[in-house]
């Protein structure tokens, strides 16, 4: 079953009729999108004024139709187009309303644009890495209309590459990258002549099967945009293994039927741009700043051949003053429904979510074309109480011509902007106040003797710890004096170090005895353990004189055996003291 190309039929108004005097039709088949542009000249041959014409599409064209638009003459505005319920001889009818009523014998020129997706079929369906991609287009050499056509011509653009076969409908002229059918004269209504064109088309047939676009609006000066995109190459599938070496040595370069890299066009004010996939950030991307846009050069981790797929996330921030307008409490957000993904992209399913600030109301939405508005969602963020309203839009089968702006109207009171800062301030104030009250006040109703005893013991153990630390420092100072003696050989300094050790030790032991005795009234067990603190340095003091004598006799500046033994005794006493204190 093959599809006829665009069939335009000149419509009728009540008691009026049309005649097509000239048709100049162009069919662009150089990419995955079939782009049809028809320049029509029509004359009202009826008995009264007419204000509309009709466009007819075959059933298959209607199924693959993504975009349709019409312009009258040199006017830049788009004409209103509506799909009619009734069919005409098996064709789907689209009614185009003209800018003005056309009088009898009056002439009007109309340009109709169509974009058809997934109409071209690869043949063969599977190719190797080194082969080129060929596709087949089925269509009609004539411009079929519901009225006679005086003169018509169709130009088919194929792009560069080989042409395997072209159906001839005389007069037909095949020149390089184009095929011209016609001109044909005085064709009757609904004239059809089937054609088939089998040609080379190495454009990657990459389709964005899923695009989930999220726009988060903040009244504090920023709008965050993020898109999750899934890409699938729906051209001729890759047959056999993939070779990275063959790919790098392929002389075809960009003419390979694979997506090697592409350019995404973002707004000129985009900043904080990021691009990542499931693995993480992809460093092969680059950003180029232009006067009216920001171009992101994206290179996936691997080339996308037929049947292959990938997904990624791209996001950025833009200043809100460029897209958010207000007058008092009335706000209007004007942004694009869809960002430019890459040239000639086809989007199978688009979901656009607009996250509005909390407490908005009276939401109204205007879209540039028909979209399905899903039920609103609610999303919670930091310091939210009732949640933020999320407006959800969906549309299937989009092309670059759908990159247009929507307008979202809502009301928001300015006083609500300081609500969350006040909530944060109140929260932290309450938290710190509670901590202060809990720390400063004793909430026990009845005194706890056991708890009070534990607190007294902890205080006395803390005193013991300080005294033991002081005694350990006394031994460390003596070892420093010995070290200095080995360098200076000053006997007086060494004897002064010894004298200071004995004096400080006696003083600390006296205070330790008093502190240990104070433990007895609270805990006999702790008292008995603590007495051991006075015995740990006995071996140190017993060997002190012998150690000093050996130091004086030794001429070594480095540590001797006696130094090592004495130092070990000091360290052992310190370790045992700390372990005992920890057990109290």
TrEMBL record:
- Leader sequence residues: 1-15
Looking at the record's lineage, which domain of life comes first? Answer: Eukaryota
The metabolic or biological pathway listed in the UniProt record of this protein is: Protein modification; protein glycosylation
| Membrane association type | Single-pass type I membrane protein
Provide the transmembrane region boundaries.
422-441
Give the InterPro entries listed for this entry: Ribophorin_I (IPR007676)
Which Pfam families does this UniProt record tie to the protein?
Ribophorin_I (PF04597)
GO terms classed as biological process:
protein N-linked glycosylation via asparagine
**Cell compartment(s), UniProt:** Endoplasmic reticulum membrane
Give the record's GO CC terms: oligosaccharyltransferase complex
* Key words of the record: Endoplasmic reticulum, Membrane, Signal, Transmembrane, Transmembrane helix
Q: Which PANTHER family match?
A: DOLICHYL-DIPHOSPHOOLIGOSACCHARIDE--PROTEIN GLYCOSYLTRANSFERASE SUBUNIT 1 (PTHR21049:SF0), RIBOPHORIN I (PTHR21049)
Assembly and binders: Component of the oligosaccharyltransferase (OST) complex.
Its annotated function is as follows: Subunit of the oligosaccharyl transferase (OST) complex that catalyzes the initial transfer of a defined glycan (Glc(3)Man(9)GlcNAc(2) in eukaryotes) from the lipid carrier dolichol-pyrophosphate to an asparagine residue within an Asn-X-Ser/Thr consensus motif in nascent polypeptide chains, the first step in protein N-glycosylation. N-glycosylation occurs cotranslationally and the complex associates with the Sec61 complex at the channel-forming translocon complex that mediates protein translocation across the endoplasmic reticulum (ER). All subunits are required for a maximal enzyme activity.
Family, according to the entry, reads as follows: Belongs to the OST1 family.
Q: What is this protein called?
A: Dolichyl-diphosphooligosaccharide--protein glycosyltransferase subunit 1
Native source species: Necator americanus
């Amino acid at each position: 079953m093959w599809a006829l190309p665009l069939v335009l039929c000149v419509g009728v108004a009540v008691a009026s009729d049309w005649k097509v005097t000239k048709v100049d039709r162009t069919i662009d088949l150089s990419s995955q999108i079939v782009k049809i542009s028809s320049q029509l000249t029509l004359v009202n041959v009826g008995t009264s004024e007419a204000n509309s014409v009709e466009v007819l599409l075959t059933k298959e064209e209607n199924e693959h139709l993504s975009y349709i638009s019409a312009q009258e003459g040199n006017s830049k505005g788009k004409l209103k187009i509506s799909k009619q319920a009734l069919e005409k001889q098996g064709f789907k009818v689209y009614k185009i309303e003209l800018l003005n009523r056309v009088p009898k014998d009056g002439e009007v020129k109309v340009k109709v644009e169509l974009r058809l997706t997934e109409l071209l079929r690869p043949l063969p369906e599977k190719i190797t890495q080194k082969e080129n991609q060929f596709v087949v287009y089925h269509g009609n050499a004539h411009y079929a209309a519901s009225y006679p056509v005086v003169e018509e011509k169709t130009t088919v653009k194929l792009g560069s590459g080989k042409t395997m076969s072209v159906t001839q409908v005389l007069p037909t002229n095949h020149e390089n990258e184009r095929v011209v059918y016609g001109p044909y004269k005085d064709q009757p209504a609904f004239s059809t002549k089937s054609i088939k064109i089998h040609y080379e088309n190495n454009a990657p047939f990459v389709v964005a099967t899923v695009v989930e676009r999220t726009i988060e609006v903040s009244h504090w000066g920023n709008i965050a945009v993020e898109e999750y995109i899934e890409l699938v190459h729906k051209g001729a599938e890759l047959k056999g293994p993939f070779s990275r070496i063959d790919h790098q040595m392929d002389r075809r370069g960009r003419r390979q039927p694979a997506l090697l890299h592409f350019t995404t066009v973002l707004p000129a004010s985009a900043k904080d741009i990021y691009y990542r996939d499931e693995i993480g950030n992809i460093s092969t991307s680059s950003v180029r700043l232009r006067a009216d846009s920001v171009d992101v050069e994206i290179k996936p981790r691997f080339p996308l051949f037929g049947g292959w797929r990938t997904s990624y996330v791209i996001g950025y921030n833009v200043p809100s003053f460029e897209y958010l307008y207000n007058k008092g409490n009335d706000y209007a957000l004007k942004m694009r429904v869809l960002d430019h993904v890459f040239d000639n992209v086809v989007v199978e399913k688009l979901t656009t979510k607009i996250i509005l600030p909390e407490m908005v109301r009276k939401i109204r939405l205007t879209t540039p074309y028909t979209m399905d508005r899903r039920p609103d969602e609610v999303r919670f963020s930091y310091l939210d109480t009732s949640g933020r309203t999320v407006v959800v839009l969906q549309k299937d089968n989009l092309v670059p011509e759908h990159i247009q702006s929507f307008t979202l109207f809502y009301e928001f009171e300015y006083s609500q902007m300081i609500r969350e800062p006040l909530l944060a301030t109140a929260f932290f104030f309450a938290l710190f106040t509670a901590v202060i009250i809990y720390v400063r006040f004793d909430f026990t109703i009845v005194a706890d003797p056991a708890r009070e005893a534990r607190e007294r013991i902890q205080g006395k153990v803390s005193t013991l710890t300080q005294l033991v630390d002081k005694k350990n420092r006394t031994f460390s100072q003596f070892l420093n004096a010995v070290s200095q003696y080995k360098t200076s050989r000053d006997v007086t300094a060494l004897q002064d170090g010894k004298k200071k050790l004995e004096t400080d030790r006696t003083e600390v032991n006296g205070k330790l005895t008093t502190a240990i005795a104070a433990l007895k009234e609270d805990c006999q067990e702790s008292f008995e353990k603590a007495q051991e603190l006075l015995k740990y340095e006995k071996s140190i003091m017993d060997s002190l004189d012998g150690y000093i004598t050996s130091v004086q006799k030794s001429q070594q500046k480095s540590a001797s055996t006696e130094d090592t033994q004495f130092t070990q005794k000091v360290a052992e006493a310190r370790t045992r003291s700390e372990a005992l204190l920890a057990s109290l």
